[in-house]
């Protein structure tokens, strides 16, 4: 609807019936998209209209559809798939306005990195020529000075929705964690001497947090990034995160209903009998054998000890 057209406000949509029609379409579309929680929100607007008109027939239909929506939420618990997200950066003057822009792309659930890579390579390869387009394979920050000015570069990274701890109190269900998303994160491991991976004691991690201009799901499947934040984790913080992750995996595996011995065996093997010597034992030997000299590290040291306490309980 564009407001500057003559007579637009006397059009068919600018009536109560028009609004009802649009809302019904919206509810049907949300239902097809599997966003049953949003169906409920749309009907919250519709119900008072029908109640005011004493339209029992319409109300009966709506409540029937609401029952369907809620029973689908219950039955499809854990089976719903919403989307996979990728950060795509464009570099090179060939892209014009897109040069140095970054976007978050929303792809159908379980899209592999190779699939989106292949698609974008094909699309931009046709436009600029296969030999001009290059895909940057890592997720390190791009240094423009090192790029060939006659080429077009695309960098694609898998990203995950990012939430602060306080947000997790409200984002309880799987739907909450996949709806109204504006912040995404990816991690890049690095060491101070330039290699990606090193010994535990020298392994740092950079978390990059992207904020988009609108929230997903949106009418477009890609939204530009308007803010980039970076958090650097020191080696002991990396270790704390790894231990928390292992503890979560154990908790998940031990609380599965029905129990899944295969899953539990895999998680246990990964926690205890690690073939690579970067397992929990190694972490404890590296970070917990001595009390750190630097008082700034006491908090991390204690936190890691608490992580191990949790871990051994599990």
UniProtKB/TrEMBL annotation:
GO biological process: axonogenesis; small GTPase-mediated signal transduction
GO molecular function, one term: guanyl-nucleotide exchange factor activity
Entry annotated with the keyword Lipid biosynthesis: no
Domain DOCKER: 1-314
Superkingdom assignment: Eukaryota
A Pfam entry, by short name: DHR-2_Lobe_B
PROSITE patterns on file: DOCKER
Keywords attached to this entry: Guanine-nucleotide releasing factor
Similarity annotation: Belongs to the DOCK family.
Official protein name in the record: DOCK7 protein
Organism name: Scopus umbretta (Hammerkop)
